[in-house]
Amino acid sequence: MLYRTVVSSAIRATAAPTRLNAQRQTALGARAYSTDKPKSGGNGLLFAALAGLGVAGGIYYNSSSTTAVKPAAKPVAAATEVKAAFSPKEFKAFKLKEVQEINHNTSVFRFDLPEDSTSGLHVASCVITRYPITKKDGTPGYIIRPYTPTSDENAQGYVDFIVKKYPDGKMSKHFHDLKVGDELEIKGPIPKLQWEENKFNNVGLIAGGTGITPMLQIIRKVLNHSEGRDKTKITLVFANQTEEDILLKEELDKYAKAHPDQIKIHYLLDRPADKWTGGKGFVTKEIVQQYMPGPNEPNTLVAVCGPDKMVELISGAKAKDKSQGEIGGILKELGYTSENVFKF
């Protein structure tokens, strides 16, 4: 069963399965500015991997977000040698085990892995998913999209994705059409940002909606899997439309409570309810100046992930080949450079 709280898999890593908490505090719904399409992400290597696969249709990131699914099998200790279920060289088919609806257009999808294996993903990376189609000319082809698994990287025996269904999203629609027992082909990992312990003194994370996915990978890596070795300080600005759209709020809040000297979290809502006491509006120049490490501070990084328009406004768009591209937007105006900015 999908479990009740998002935190146990990442913080307590217990093995007993329970039900996913779909209440407001752990609402795992839409991305910020949810009328926008999913964020284009990845890097040059990812684009090259996609381009070489003969994709039928356009390529874009439809990133899923970090799951609220508690381990159905025992997570593996970091020092334990286990097999990687995914392969970066070939697609493999994995059966859908369970689906948990989060809201009207977002669900958690759990796929079975061999009991003695993990996904093999590292921070920060994604996978490529595909399903076969017949193209307009009658020839066979595939719809291929990258997604970020949302289960803990050390979880053994399963992998989870949170997927929001978009009206024109071919792969997201395919996810939501899958039935338990159906298979999905997956290939990976595809690296994004290679994380190194204590490489940065301070890291600022700016996320919109399901753009929280790679940010949570980093947060978990620093606070959960380094056994206290990684002293990197983290500030997260997380933008959404409504409180119900905030993904994994319970897990994030527990990290902030457990590590008050190492992580600060600031929520922004575009359409807050009257009772909301957090931040309001969009990510602005003033928000960046207030919360992000400055461009002249040593050993810092600002990472951005969210809808295309949001990323373009904050850091400049990625290049057409999905590489980082030039720094633009608010961060360029404030003096940041490619040396201290990363776009997922």
From TrEMBL:
GO MF entry, a single one: cytochrome-b5 reductase activity, acting on NADH
Organism: Umbelopsis vinacea
Family recorded in the similarity comment: Belongs to the flavoprotein pyridine nucleotide cytochrome reductase family.
Cellular compartment(s): Mitochondrion outer membrane
EC number(s) from the headed UniProt entry: 1.6.2.2
Any Pfam family the entry gives: FAD_binding_6
Keywords: FAD, Flavoprotein, Membrane, Mitochondrion, Mitochondrion outer membrane, NAD, Oxidoreductase
Protein name as it appears in the record: NADH-cytochrome b5 reductase
